[in-house]
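Bench log. Compound arrived from synthesis this morning; before running ITC I wanted a structural hypothesis for how adenosine monophosphate sits in the protein. Inputs:
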Amino acid sequence: MLMTDAILITIIAERLLKKQLTELIVEKGAKGYTITDASGEGSRGIRASEFEGRNIKLEAIVNQEVANKILTAVSETYFENYAVITYTENVKVVRGDKYL
Amino acid sequence: MLMTDAILITIIAERLLKKQLTELIVEKGAKGYTITDASGEGSRGIRASEFEGRNIKLEAIVNQEVANKILTAVSETYFENYAVITYTENVKVVRGDKYL
Amino acid sequence: MLMTDAILITIIAERLLKKQLTELIVEKGAKGYTITDASGEGSRGIRASEFEGRNIKLEAIVNQEVANKILTAVSETYFENYAVITYTENVKVVRGDKYL
Amino acid sequence: MDALISNFASPIVLAFVLGIVSRLVKSNLELPKPLYQSISIYLLLAIGLKGGVELSKTSFDVVVWPVGATLLLGVVTPITAFLVLRYMGRFDMDNAAGIAAHYGSVSVVTYIAAMAYAESVGLQAEGFMPTLVALLEIPGIVVALMIPLLLSTGGGSVKKAMHEVFTGSSIMLLMGGLLIGFVSGPERFASVEPFFVTMFNGALVLFLLELGIVTASRLRDLKKAGLFLVGFGIIVPILHGILAIWLGLLAGLSVAGAGVFAAMVSSGSYIAAPAAVRIALPKASPTLYLTASLGITFPFNITLGIPLYFVIANWMGG
Amino acid sequence: MDALISNFASPIVLAFVLGIVSRLVKSNLELPKPLYQSISIYLLLAIGLKGGVELSKTSFDVVVWPVGATLLLGVVTPITAFLVLRYMGRFDMDNAAGIAAHYGSVSVVTYIAAMAYAESVGLQAEGFMPTLVALLEIPGIVVALMIPLLLSTGGGSVKKAMHEVFTGSSIMLLMGGLLIGFVSGPERFASVEPFFVTMFNGALVLFLLELGIVTASRLRDLKKAGLFLVGFGIIVPILHGILAIWLGLLAGLSVAGAGVFAAMVSSGSYIAAPAAVRIALPKASPTLYLTASLGITFPFNITLGIPLYFVIANWMGG
Amino acid sequence: MDALISNFASPIVLAFVLGIVSRLVKSNLELPKPLYQSISIYLLLAIGLKGGVELSKTSFDVVVWPVGATLLLGVVTPITAFLVLRYMGRFDMDNAAGIAAHYGSVSVVTYIAAMAYAESVGLQAEGFMPTLVALLEIPGIVVALMIPLLLSTGGGSVKKAMHEVFTGSSIMLLMGGLLIGFVSGPERFASVEPFFVTMFNGALVLFLLELGIVTASRLRDLKKAGLFLVGFGIIVPILHGILAIWLGLLAGLSVAGAGVFAAMVSSGSYIAAPAAVRIALPKASPTLYLTASLGITFPFNITLGIPLYFVIANWMGG
Ligand SMILES: Nc1ncnc2c1ncn2[C@@H]1O[C@H](COP(=O)(O)O)[C@@H](O)[C@H]1O
Ligand SMILES: Nc1ncnc2c1ncn2[C@@H]1O[C@H](COP(=O)(O)O)[C@@H](O)[C@H]1O
Ligand SMILES: Nc1ncnc2c1ncn2[C@@H]1O[C@H](COP(=O)(O)O)[C@@H](O)[C@H]1O
Ligand code: NA
Ligand code: NA
Ligand code: NA
């Protein structure tokens, strides 16, 4: 099985930012993304989207360059005022050309 | 803490394939799996399970050999006609004998 | 982008243990956590929380030391009698000071 | 004309329009998926129950002919749809059979809208209509999926698809409801009637709101689907509808019954069929079959089609 | 016999059967989890509210004896169950206590089915029965969990389990509903009555559909549970039921009230008890206690048990 | 006094209290999120529909003045709130504007509670009140978000926030419902009335249970919010309420109508406004604006505020 190295970037954020964040990562070059509902607690606590009750967890498989662009954009735009955390992992994908 | 190296294989697919895919990975040797609901967008767009609205994200901790078998089977059977993506990561598990 | 190495620890467990497990990981030093609903099958099968139908998947970004403490505590307290699995991965986080 | 306005101004149709509009203005309005699924379950079970209770009051002689007509049309309509698509539309085998499966089956919501329409113009269709809906759901899919098999193409698993069709939740709920209603009978049904009958139309408003939202996201696919499919999605249903009226009246249905029957037969499934086709004919494009049945025929039927079928039924049988 | 058929033919029991059948034919039918939880919440709150409103119309003298009988049985039944399991069935301490906790508590759905049955045969149990349900839910669990503690085994956290029991959502809703109903009184309750009373039986049909599906997945565990447990799950409830009828009639309950009371007392909890037992006695096997209470006693009660208790109540007190 | 007790003893208010209590005793009781969202959708659509049907029976002359009064107050109240917060409370620009946006908009549940209260004391507010609710939802938010823009601070995206407000699901459902109700008219509405009208108060009980739970988790933030905000959250609504009564009576509203109008105007939004403010003014603290509108003003209004407004309305206009 031919596998390609790729980056899995994960963004956990208040649900209110769903649309903005998906637009952002697509703009920065992600070919797709996957969203799951999540809840959680962190150091900053309360958010306005409490009524919708949950965070979202946004995952995208991208190459290193796109990952960097997304990381920079997310931290510049959202880290100060919103409940957002981001991390990356190394993964191996089948048919890497599709995502990278 | 004694940790064992293992592979975490993730399959994101249209919900319609849930039963088929879980059967497939168990048949190829996975001792268990975890499913979460997900939604997302990719390069191929529309699917028939839209009414059920979501993808599934199937995760299994397996050894390298089982991972390879699953990867091969999934890509042969589903990649052409269905919305499916697959990737693997290296993880460390406690009590590895249980899964591997 | 300045990234810090960290550990992503994942615990999949019967939902009944949600409160106990989140308290445990915070007590052991996690600064936050994220929870998603999950379902699944493993080697031990049935659980009492079947009515609530699902497992939880608890993820926390921590440093190696906290990860070890959590792993030890979880395996000592829950592995014998409950449906629980745990694994760790290496990730890179932005603003590592926040979690570690 | 009056009938048309009356249909357009019903809360059910208007809720559908609201759903479409809210998607067009990019509102974030959406029904939680579990609510949508819950209402589907409720509607299917309720239809089954009502049908079963009615059936328990009806004599065999009265139903036997309409049942025959339903099964016949379940076999005929997917074939006509297939032939039109394959030989006039030049669709490939998989797509032609996949779309045909949808038109062989039935859209439960179209049926409900037709019943509501009948009521709103002061008519009353036969009580056993839900029995016909349940019977119409399956054969069309089976027949359509057989075609590529007989002509030996395919590739997907027809066996799995058949299991999917027969044990799919919509059949379970419709047939299960029918049996429960039939065995319970009117008296024992009374205690659950407020829930399953009195609330029915209101729940339908919520359902059509969501269906409007889903349909609107189909509309942008109309271009991909092409002009032929748009024509197909309007003209073939009308022809199937006329055929249904003729056969329905022959089988002894009332004018209102024939109108509802036409709406059922003309409609395209978008719940049971897509799941089955996706498994049996993976090469068939969901964009084509969902756009046709949900994006074209469904909106056509619930706005113009239903009043039209009633006019024709009245004219042929009144 | 007639009573039996009438019970079997009720939409509620038939929905339960549909749930079982649909699982057996491997249908993918299932209620969305949030719907299932929503209906649970609704049913518990509705029972509480109705009970509270009735209680506000009842004098203290009338309730005091039934309340006493309920508390007494809440203490006695887990002990008899424990003794039978430990000394006749040779179960280990944890499993015996774990199962006993379930039989000391109450299955709310069994209670509801008994009320519905009473109505269907033209009888009317006392209005304050929900009060008794709420009171019966807790003590049996507490008593059973105390046993291994007194005999000093265990290992889980009884304190956490107690908090789980007392602040569990079922107690909150039942007791909260009771208080709200009691304080509101019939007049202020009127505006919410259509929602909480008129819709009740219909909502129950959906609930039992899901319960049938869950029960069916228990049935394959019957073999693991063993013959003794099957016998236990039928005979002990009957004995508890007879005891309840006798005490209930002594306490002044009507024949219908005694029948419903027997159904309650004989039933095994499968919501509050499993959660508490899982935490307090982690070594007790969920397969055993859930199979017994949900896989054996529950289906027995709602099909044969309830009519039987009514026959006995009629015979002892009629 | 009687009115007060009557209000406290209503199932709706008691359910709210049950929600608070269950959180305080750390119960795990919670409504599934999809249920909560479903009830929100239902309530908003139902209010719109009822309002639309009533509007279709009302002449233009009767509504025009109340509509004017509503729009005027939608502009005035966020400004008074802003001035009090900025210059008396010394809040920074973002927080003052953020909180003001909430008080310029409306809490739909407060409106509903006021309608229910009116009914419970035998009064009947004008049928077109839901029209006013829908109109009051937006302008206050727009005006408040304009303030920092005019005084040129901000940083968030006001444009995105405006789109959020105008296409938000609450406006879609309220306005959509109004239009559907208006176009359908009373006759076509009849078939969905049991669902949207008869069930309304019962569904509200469930909603307030959850709102109680959410509010309770706000209460621990009261300390962070500070004494000034607590005073603000009680006194400013009373002043806005009195202003609303005066203008409402001038505009021709009945005493009951003026009481309900006061409850609306005095209330703080906690669904539409938070989402908009979070996007337009990301530096404003959700803790402050949610604690004020949901933790202080909402409980004040549904317990003491509403009866008070009715007393004042009666006194000023009776
Ligand atoms: N250390 C952590 N590990 C995993 N998830 C976290 C962690 N810290 C925060 N989160 C998630 O990020 C969200 C926002 O965190 P915060 O901005 O710190 O309130 C939380 O609700 C959690 O879902
Ligand atoms: N680059 C990606 N990163 C993460 N998830 C993806 C990516 N591409 C596709 N997906 C997921 O895979 C599903 C199917 O993708 P596709 O087959 O490209 O339509 C999508 O709905 C997404 O959930
Ligand atoms: N090999 C595996 N890979 C992924 N998830 C697993 C695996 N084994 C068990 N699980 C998850 O852990 C839960 C408990 O497993 P068990 O204790 O083996 O019944 C299951 O319900 C699954 O969600
Ligand atoms: Na058809
Ligand atoms: Na019992
Ligand atoms: Na206001």
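What the model suggests: The helical segments of chain B are 18-27, 64-77. Residues 3-94 of chain B form a domain with the Alpha-Beta Plaits fold (CATH 3.30.70.120).
ITC booked for Thursday regardless.
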